Amino acid sequence: MVDSGTLFQLGSKGIFVALLAFVIVWSSKDPDKYRKLVWVTLFLTFDVIMFGAFTRLTDSGLGCPDWPGCYGHANPLQAMEHIRAAEALMPDGPVTVMKAWVEMIHRYLAMGIGVLIIAIVVISWRFWLQSGRSVHKFSPHFPVALLIFVCIQGAFGAWTVTMKLQPVIVTIHLLLGMTLLGMLAWVGARQKEHPPVAAAAYALRIPALIALILLSFQIALGGWVSTNYAALACSDFPLCHGAVIPQMDFENGFTLWRSLGMTADGEYLPFPALTAIHWTHRVFAFVMAGYIAWVCYKAYKIEGLQTIARGVLAALALQITIGIATVSLKWPLALAVAHNGCAALLVLLLVMLNYKARIPGAAGTNRGPDQLDTRLSAAPNDNA
Known about the structure:
Membrane topology: Multi-pass membrane protein
Subcellular location: Membrane
Organism: Herminiimonas glaciei
Largest sheet: none
InterPro entries: COX15/CtaA_fam, COX15/CtaA_HemeA_synthase
Structural class: mainly alpha
Number of domains: 2
Strand content: under 5%
Pfam families: COX15-CtaA
Helix content: 55-70%
């Protein structure tokens, strides 16, 4: 049980992280401090996703096996007696001094994001009311949704620890983090006036949304690979165990509600189940990449979407390269973390593509592409 003093110390660390971000915002020369705050929060969220991958891949998720503190304390220094005792029993186990610090730093950074989102909500409401509820970028509805979402994310962070890294909980925790990043990107995109894009972008709205959904599904599969420690289940490429379709156990591999490394019946997870997990992630990557590349090809032909289309294609090519190198080089930590970071970058870029594809729709309510052409023909063209 965590006492009030420990909770106060933990909260103060989250506030300290947020204060560092506030210093960056208020010392910036950008006159729009609210916009700067949103983008600094987004940047910190991206960093936390990367650090979360590092936490997971270094097996530090149970470095402090309770929550929100570490053996009931606010930091590993205060819990050193417990950590040393656990480390003495299992030197290579989940609890070590290094792993405890990795886990707690991840929590401190996550708490900082929570504080920053609370600040975004308060500031957006204040500016929204001061503007007579007329300034679109200060609408508090998205910030409030962010606050609700970050609370849900925090709950799954707690369950990740208390349920001993149950794969489905950890995977949902990853997906929620990526979704929070995407929501922040959408709020960030609302902070400035974007130049109009060609009316043909109206037809790209659904394909761009499908591309984002496919990416989300692929990230879920990647999280399932990572949380089940199935990264090296196929150690060759492009084949898997020298076969196009190796021996696989999909039933046990994709049973969602089960303990880490175990089947639903409590037996050890067979290796063919790990193979099925890895193989599915690898095969679906080609489906996702092909579709996103097609969407980028269509976007590149639309005035105003060329830059974002190039960015998505470049990130996609980098992600595929990192994925292949990660398998070929036997899953080095730096590449594995970079693979996770590049997935987050793809989320950001596809959210921006979706936002830009909806600019004509927002400018011309209830108008089709032909009507939008008339409205936008007088607007200056810009590829930004």
